[in-house]
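Per reviewer request, we include the raw input and output of the structure prediction for the construct analysed in the revised manuscript.
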Amino acid sequence: MAEQLRAIRTRQTILAAAAKIFEEQGYQAATISQILTEAGVTKGALYFHFHSKEDLAQGVLAEQDQRIIVPPRPSKVQEIVDVVVLHAYRLQTDPMVRAGVRLTMDQLTQSLDRSGPFLRWSEVGLDLLQQAQAQGELLPHISPVETADVIVGAFAGVQSMSQAICEYGDLGVRVAALLRHLLPSAVVPSVLASLDLSEGRGMKVYAEALEAAEMRDVLETAS
């Protein structure tokens, strides 16, 4: 058990170091040597967990949405809103998420498969939109597949603009504006009127999601 915990901690240390270097340098410029120095581990320890720089990058891409998730909501449209604002808040506060997004948006990383995060977020959105549709929360003409892709694509553009202008400083404001413009074209008015689209929503959802994640960890450890 002690060895397993050490291995988990070492892997997380390496991923955190890789995220920092990828965010600062970009995928192409980043080197294994820089990541080793940042992590303070041996080359053998790194290659035990990750076989290449590409493997490290895929680890960072996968890590950003593994633990902190939005608890289920009665309104699936509100749950979609909360997924979006939570990711925006984490972009402002979590280096792992920022590094993952930089890797995803970096068109120079031709050798790296960057499709994973886009496809995963579209799948999350599609599932919630289909549930919202089944509950009568969407307008009759809405195609959940199309709407999921529009939301993911629009968010990608807004976060990229915010990063370029002020390093995500205004991302909460921009995302709230995005949702106010997108949702009326997809959501029935009665549901729309009940939504919390406030700029501080991301912080509240993060605190709730973090508490839920910590509770899951406690239960998993106890079992």
